[in-house]
Input
Amino acid sequence: MPVTTVESPPGPSADALRVARHLRRLEALEARHRLRRRTVRAVRGGLGGGGAFLVLVKAKLVVAALVGIGFA
Output
């Protein structure tokens, strides 16, 4: 009796498709993480710069008040 073999259809295997899908998911996850990290860094920098500016303005106001009342 002849032995018949079942050949898989041409193209990538199921494992290759699964790995490719998983790799796309991980790359998308990494891209979201990079965007989130950049955004958080920009916000923290902006808050730090804004805070430093407010401290500078407050110091100038204090000096102006001291000069105004004759203590400086």
In short: Helices lie at 14-69. The radius of gyration is 32 Å. The mean pLDDT is 87.
